[in-house]
Design a protein that fits this description.
The complex is a heterodimer of chains A (619) and B (487). By secondary structure, chain A is α+β, with helices and mostly antiparallel strands. Chain A contains 15 helices and 32 strands. Helices cover 23% and strands 26% of the residues of chain A. In chain A, a hairpin with a 5-residue loop joins β15 (235-240) and β16. Chain B is of the alpha/beta class. In chain B, the strands form five sheets. In chain B, strands 1, 2, 5, 6, 7, 8, 9, 19, 20 and 21 form a ten-stranded mixed β-sheet that branches. Chain B has a four-stranded antiparallel β-sheet with strand order 12-13-15-14. Chain B is globular, with a radius of gyration of 24 Å. The chains are: A alpha+beta (619), B alpha/beta (487). At the A-B interface, β4 and α6 of A face α2 and α14 of B.
């Protein structure tokens, strides 16, 4: 009988919450799995980030073996941050297409499976964009951008001219009245000089008695009616680049209010699965076939509209409604594929638990700077509710499990609160390791991207979600630091200076330790990683400014965004969860690690494990 | 400037310009000029590709189809091969100027032309295992290394085994395009010309499954999408080739003729027999090809060879061995037959509106043994059936095997060049204009022998400017990161 391995990823599921709920009998399916097999906390990667951890899951190596160290990388030529997951190369010539390259390297487990003739179905795995060739089917996950080229950018439409655009969104003013036209923004046309936005014209009519907004999207469907405070179905838009070329995208509308003035929110415009501008599946036609079977679905990597909530364009209810829509699509996708899954490797990731926790954590943490006493009763329980929903999803999976099936349910990391934000570059300046031009002082005004840094006197800089890079001569374009005793001095200064650094506000240590890359990474791609990795204590994280190469006048301040939960802290503090329906004994290894899963899966399917995989089979 | 020609045999402008999913072609169309391309008479692969390459009409090349009369006897039909056409082609002009060319499958190219560069045999190659079908000969081993046995055609493409046919065509083309990419990136060239023959085979094999107006069309049939699927795949191949080129290359995607449905077959020799113009000693009991007929030559005035069009031959005194028509009567006889062919009707009595051509009127020169008339039955909506024994004139089945389509007079072209002064849809382009246009844009001399004219003659060529790129790289990066949530 052919063997099967089914892996269900529940991104960000936190062990302490799962263990409590198991104890209360609130996760019956997970309890069943644990009963049949084992449960353990799962050691995650350094750093504990989704693309890093899942890449280690698929390659069975530490990040040095696959090259993904953070969502954000930096270009040593320019010191600029960029998305680390894939690389968009401008077309070789004006007649060719823009190329996308997946920056996750290493040998993913579907490769040895393919060589052995074993089929794989890999759905929504992070860092699989562009999709890879395998024996089976793949649908890309986190890493797929929206039609504007960003990780997720929605648009807020308002008749209120006093409104202004916030971070990570577009704002479009509407004309007054009840019958109007406006535009949905599509990709930028960079083949024109200067580049311009493509767009799709839409007609709108406010129907006050019915409390609806009637939209004429100029395509398919011809008219759509959206109720106030509800999400629309997916609407297709056509964006014309020229008379001959156009691209198709899909988006949902959320009508915030019809009066006193009209306001609505349009989600990020996703690639149309039926005609994506870059392939999001293998085979290329698979996304289209899937959409014909289960309906349109989000192709965007970060499919949940957290920016809308962060910017207050959506409230928590609207956000959770949309997360529910994403979850249900994902569930339909899983059900459809499980129905025809007969052998080999099956992988499905549900991202929503991670996104829900990011946005709702403040309601369960009374010490959070954004704890809201009035909303807490309603929203604090929603995280546990979501966990229960995830458990419920597993019912249909359990139906597919027989004596020839290995079932694995895991999360890539845990979760915790994010109360205090650390401005690493400000600390580096305070420590004399970073200098600004013209004797300037660190400040939010300096903006992002290090425009104000004096590289000729800077030894280290921070960019990304926890990394510090040393300004090495010969490596960085304006590097000054020599390897050897100088670099050693700088490393030690940072390690000792940051370890146990107290938060002036609470005297709690913000940072546990700082790791050197040499101590935690090995493999072909270590060169691409930061030199040092800051391991924050739970409750702390790099600031929003730091991630993009910015500063603040203080060292630490409150995190006042609605994005209030996070997990980019010392990985020891945020292990994930691991449930398997076959018992494993930890006596052999002390703990289960995320890099153990790929060898475990290959071993179970009788396929030899490549040398590159560092973990050990759990059985 | 380098020139890269991607020939799609039989590509139909209606499909190429009408399918939005062909994104690479659309990008080319936007960047350059494109339109319908009037082919030659007859619009057939041989000699059309060489008409394109030499910018000479079939009469001047002395080749009127795959098989031509080699003399005025009744049965010496010979297959055209690479030696049949010696006129100066684009690659010959380039060689004169010290430049190299690569030609792949440009018919007729067996035996492979010895050009200044690399030459790979076309579908007329009898056996790619036994024959030396490449020049230089050493290239053959490299091809075998790359793709195994190199296929030049799908033999027996007129078959009922449609599933097999589709797979074989795709398999052949995959190998050919792989070789194309290898040659483009690994070998030296200033002129590159590949002809994909798979598309022609797809059309002939599946047009009746695709075209709703075809008499045999059945809605919901399993091969309805086979042709559009092939075009989509070709577009991807074109995209993969565009990746390999630089900004200083002229790119041309072109077909030698188009495609259109077949409404039926006109059994011309049957009709000639009925009209007493062709006399047989014994009317055959079974379907018999013309060359097996027992013809009474002493009484026969006309006979015809079948195919997509009809080549009509007169039995002329002093010219043919047992000629019947007096030389003095030739002209009036030709006029009379032209009129009679034009008046032909279909099986329902409706005028076929056939097109009839006199070689002297349509060709600048008439060389070798030309047909006395060329007939496009029903404007090529009907093919010409040469076999006898049908007992009727209008026939549905093809005598050489199932074939869903005929050729159409208009093919297509898309031309993108950094210095091309014309942009957008262009009307009135002819197949013979292409070679002069390419040579003109690339800065080569145009041989006197070329009959067409450069479409950009007299226009100021734009300077090959730099491409418009998004100069604001920082903003682009910032846009890429935005919305991540973690930042």
């Amino acid at each position: 009988m052919p063997k099967k391995v089914i892996v269900i990823g529940l991104d960000g599921l936190e062990p302490s919450i799962v263990e409590t709920m198991l104890g209360l009998g609130e996760l019956p399916n997970l309890a069943k799995i644990r009963q049949a097999g084992s449960y353990a906390r799962l050691k995650t990667t350094s750093p504990a980030q989704t693309p890093v951890a899942w890449s280690s899951f698929v390659t069975g190596t530490n990040p040095g073996g696959h090259g993904i160290f953070d969502f954000i990388s930096r270009n040593p030529e320019t010191y600029q941050p960029d998305i680390a997951l894939s690389h968009f190369a401008p077309p070789k010539n004006i007649l060719a297409q823009t190329r996308v390259v997946n920056r996750r390297k290493g040998i993913p487990l579907w490769e040895p499976l393919m060589k052995a003739g074993v089929a794989s179905t890999v759905l929504r795995c992070p860092c699989t964009f562009p999709p890879e060739t395998l024996h089976g089917r793949m649908l890309s996950g986190v890493g797929v951008p929206d039609m504007r080229g960003s990780q997720s950018k929605g648009t807020f439409y308002t008749q209120d001219r006093a409104a202004s655009a916030q971070e990570n969104e577009q704002l479009i003013y509407l004309d007054s009245g009840m019958d109007l036209t406006t535009r949905v923004l599509g990709p930028r046309n960079t083949r024109q000089s200067p580049p311009s936005d493509t767009y799709s014209e839409i007609g709108l009519r406010v129907a006050k008695p019915a409390r609806t907004l009637v939209i004429q999207p100029g395509g398919d469907p011809a008219t759509i009616e959206v109720r106030e405070r509800a999400w629309s179905e997916w609407i297709r838009f056509k964006f014309k680049f020229s008379r001959l070329q156009s691209a198709s995208g899909i988006a949902r509308f959320y009508v915030r209010q019809l009066e006193p003035h009209l306001e609505f929110y349009v989600s990020a415009v996703n690639f149309d699965p039926a005609a994506p501008i870059f392939p999001v599946s293998f085979p290329t036609t698979y996304a289209k076939e899937l959409s014909e079977k289960i309906g349109l679905f989000s192709t965007l990597g970060m499919a949940e509209e957290h920016n809308g909530l962060n910017n207050g364009r959506l409230d928590e209810s609207a956000y959770l409604q949309q997360c529910e829509l994403v979850l249900r699509e994902r569930q339909r996708m899983m059900q459809f594929e499980l129905d025809r899954f007969t052998e080999g490797f099956f992988f499905m990731l549900f991202d929503t638990p991670d996104r829900v926790q990011h946005m709702l954590w403040r309601f369960r943490d009374p010490s959070h700077p954004c704890f809201d006493r009035d909303l807490a009763p309603e929203f604090a329980p929603r995280i546990e509710e979501h966990y229960a929903q995830c458990d419920d999803l597993l019912s249909c999976v359990l139906d597919k499990v027989d004596e020839h099936t290995l079932l694995i349910v895991l999360s890539d990391h845990g979760f915790g609160t994010f109360r205090r934000a650390f401005h690493t570059n400000t600390w580096l300046w305070q420590s004399g390791l970073l200098k600004l031009k013209d004797n300037r002082k660190p400040n939010e005004d300096l903006g992002e991207g290090f425009a104000a840094i004096d590289w000729s006197r800077t030894y280290a800089y921070a960019v990304g979600l926890g990394g510090i890079y040393l300004n090495f001569k010969g490596r960085e374009s304006a590097g000054i630091l020599e390897e050897g005793s100088d670099a050693e001095r700088v490393r030690r200064a940072i390690q000792t200076g940051l370890a146990d650094l107290p938060d002036p506000a609470t005297q709690r240590a913000a940072i546990r330790s700082v790791s050197r890359r040499e101590d935690i990474y090995s493999g072909a791609f270590v060169e691409n990683s930061p030199d040092l990795l800051v391991n924050f204590n739970p409750g702390f994280r790099v600031s929003w400014h730091t991630a993009l190469g910015g500063f603040s006048h203080t060292l630490l301040d409150d995190n006042i965004r609605r994005w209030s939960g996070d997990h980019i802290v010392d990985p020891e503090a945020v292990p994930g969860i691991l449930f398997t329906n076959h018992a494993f004994s930890l006596a052999r290894h002390n703990h289960a690690q995320i890099i153990d899963l790929a060898p475990t899966i290959l071993n179970y399917l009788g396929v030899s494990v490549p040398q590159s995989m560092e973990g050990n089979s759990l059985f | 400037m380098k020139i890269c020609v991607l020939g799609l045999d039989c590509a139909a402008p209606e499909i190429v310009f009408g399918d939005e999913r062909l994104v690479n072609l659309r990008r080319l169309m936007d960047a350059g000029m494109y339109g319908r391309l009037e082919s030659v008479v007859p619009p057939i692969t041989v000699p059309a590709w060489m008409c394109m390459s030499t910018s000479q009409d079939p009469g001047s090349l002395g080749v009127y189809g795959f098989r031509n009369r080699t003399d005025y006897s009744y049965d010496k039909l010979g297959f055209a091969n690479s030696a049949s056409i010696k006129a100066i082609a684009i690659w010959d002009q380039l060689a004169r100027e010290g430049k190299k060319s690569i030609i792949i499958g440009v018919p007729p190219n067996y035996p492979p032309r010895r050009i200044n560069g690399i030459s790979i045999g076309c579908f007329l190659t009898p056996d790619t295992v036994k024959n030396d079908f490449t020049y230089p000969p050493g290239i053959k081993a490299k091809l075998n290394e790359l793709v195994g046995e190199y296929p030049v055609d799908v033999k027996n493409f007129r078959t009922d085994r449609k599933h097999w046919l589709k797979e074989e065509i795709f398999r052949m083309s995959e190998k050919q395009w792989k070789v194309v990419r290898w040659l483009l990136s690994e070998q030296e060239w200033d002129y590159f010309h590949f002809v994909d023959i798979g598309l022609d085979r797809m059309h002939h094999g599946f047009w009746n499954y695709f075209d709703e107006k075809h008499v045999q069309f059945e809605p919901g049939n399993p091969y309805q999408n086979a042709i559009p699927e092939y075009y989509l795949w070709l577009d991807e191949q074109i995209g993969s080739v565009l990746e390999l080129l630089d900004n200083e290359t002229i790119v041309l995607v072109i077909s030698d003729h188009g495609a259109q449905r077949l409404d039926g077959g006109f059994a011309i020799n049957e009709w000639l027999i009925r009209e007493g113009l062709l006399v047989v000693n014994e009317y055959p009991k079974t379907l018999t090809p013309f060359d097996k007929l027992n013809v009474n030559w002493a009484k026969t005035r006309i006979w015809s060879e079948g195919g997509y069009y009809a080549r009509v031959f007169f039995n002329v005194q002093g010219r043919e061995p047992q000629g019947v028509i007096a030389a003095a009567d030739y002209q009036s006889f030709q006029d009379e037959m032209k009129a009679r062919f034009e008046r032909l009707a279909d099986d329902k009595g409706q005028p076929l509106k056939s097109l009839v051509f006199k070689p002297k009127e349509i060709y600048r020169n008439v060389r070798n043994v030309a047909p006395d008339l060329i007939v496009h039955f029903g404007g090529l909506y009907w093919r010409s059936i040469g076999t006898v024994g049908h007992s009727r004139i209008h026939v549905q089945e093809n005598d050489t095997g199932p074939d869903g389509c005929n050729h159409a007079q208009f093919g297509m072209f898309v031309l993108a060049a950094p210095n091309c002064p014309i942009n957008g849809e262009y009307e009135g382009a002819r197949l013979l204009d292409i070679a002069p246009t390419l040579l003109d844009l690339a800065g080569y001399e145009i041989p006197e022998s070329m009959q067409g004219r450069s479409l950009v003659a007299g226009l100021e060529k734009r300077s090959a400017g730099g491409q418009s790129q998004d100069g604001n790289a920082e903003k682009t990066i910032h846009d890429r990161l935005s919305g991540l949530g973690y930042i």
